Sequence to fold (599 residues):
Amino acid sequence: MPPAYDLTDHAYDVLVVGAGGSGLRATLGVVEAGLSTACITKLFPTRSHTVAAQGGISASLANMGEDHWTWHMYDTVKGSDWLGDQDAIEYMVASAVDAVVELEHYGMPFSRTEEGKIYQRPFGGMTTRFGKGPAAERTCAAADRTGHAMLHTLYQQCLKRDAAFFVEYFVLDLLFDRQGRCCGALAWNLADGTLHRFRARATVLATGGYGRVYFSCTSAHSCTGDGGGMALRAGLPLQDPEFVQFHPTGIYGAGCLITEGARGEGGYLTNGEGERFMERYAPSAKDLASRDVVSRAMTLEIREGRGVAKKGHKKGDHILLHLEHLPRKVLHERLPGISETARIFADVDVTRKPIPVLPTCHYNMGGVPTLHSTAVVNPAGKDENRVVEGLFAVGEAGCVSVHGANRLGSNSLLDLVVFGKAAAEACAKTLKGKGKVPPMPEATCEQKILERFDRLRHAQGEHRTADLRDALQHLMQEDCAVFRSKDVLQQGKERVQELWQKLPQIAVSDRSLIWNSDLMETLEFENLLLCATATLACAFERTESRGAHAREDFPKRDDKAWMQHSVVWVEGGKTRFAKRKVHTQPLTAETIPPQERVY
Ligand SMILES: Cc1cc2nc3c(=O)[nH]c(=O)nc-3n(C[C@H](O)[C@H](O)[C@H](O)COP(=O)(O)OP(=O)(O)OC[C@H]3O[C@@H](n4cnc5c(N)ncnc54)[C@H](O)[C@@H]3O)c2cc1C
Fold:
């Protein structure tokens, strides 16, 4: 018997799932284009993880020194370790200045220079003159609360235009018609327990990353890869999920982020011997080498016995970040948020003492594959760019791919607004003047979705969701972190299979439909498990080291075999793997050919 749930129907031109930076920018663009839009979000919009972004948003404004978008492009391609798609990268960096000026005009309160221009700071991997000049001052900041300023600005602009928000609605899954076209989504209203069927001609996935597959991460509890889970359940793949960014400076123990802007303002790292070890690993960029490079260097220092030990302990297990030499005015004006974070979470007064830090999971370079228009693709045989009609993906949930194997700091906030806007433009282009939204086609997968929902709601197994999630987070932390090898990854794959076997015996104790966080976390856990399975499968297949993916058994980059995206489908724990070509041809610029990546 199919479960009996009443569905409330809605129809819109465009459905945006997610209200972080990317979802809000897409919503704003769609409303401005005169299309009817619903933005659905499981969190209140300004609680999305984007609010936590600290350091800034990159754009070659050249407010503080010379700069050019082609230099930004070079840095981004090099930062991506030549896995980024150069058409998408050109599109992003060439749109960056306009995107930031637009945010300024929307009212975003950027920090200012003496002359009143937008303040910009240096960030890891950002250089001038194609890597030959000094560090670029390219990252536009609102103190160390840039994401907060950006998210509130975008939300207010959406409210001004009367965009429709469905807040604290949890999207269960996407709906598809018989031809495989996406035609909306099914959502659960967390507050009153009702279920809603959203019919839309275009759906934009903007659900953020899945940092919560790791035990120690900087991302919010809500970053559970729901968009990735929905795509995989619908038979669509993820691309490049093995590329997980570890940020060098998560607070030791707590995991909270200390922005790279702290090193941009002059902070530096030392090991247990008090040595500024980054000088050995990256002689020219030093502490501002890109994140994968710094995280690996820190891990090696600790492994080789030069970590800093906790009081009363012999074994060094962390690194120190020094800010105490910086003028108080700089700390007060440019880094007030992290000064507070360090006090609360590390009990450190940054004007006196260094902060204990450790590489911590921070960002997913991989996601649902898209073209630079943000249209989702599902490669089939020779047709690597087969478009899934009616579906777009943006932000950390998508993989467009501008970050390739390693994202440069401050390029994500840029990615959100540039491709959020691009998605809105793509929707406007295909949908304008189409008249009323047609009724829901008959053959959708909603029965399957309701059955899953009902099954989990009444799950009476022996394994608590929290225990399974804990096991998942620990296995990912142990078997798929900064350094990887065949044996360790094999172990990770086996441990993940054990969780798939336990899944039918999962336990949910709350059967209600209203504010049932037990059920919501269970739905999220399934999404995490799918994303983790995809991540491990691709990390295992990719027998080279590139960007954030460091294989101890294959320490070299192998362009011949692996200058390729990995694409993976997951069904019931089983994975299918394929490769997809990297787009090396930019839109107008010249291709940046692969080189050795040194900083
Ligand atoms: C601590 C921290 C600091 C950072 N600092 C910087 C920085 O300085 N510069 C930079 O460029 N990048 C930074 N990043 C990265 C960047 O902030 C993120 O990649 C980016 O904000 C992600 O935005 P998003 O729009 O993709 O998703 P998010 O902001 O994560 O929003 C996801 C949205 O999807 C919704 N959602 C998810 N699942 C569902 C569902 N099932 N149903 C309904 N709604 C759903 C949520 O409610 C939310 O609104 C930082 C990241 C972290 C964690």
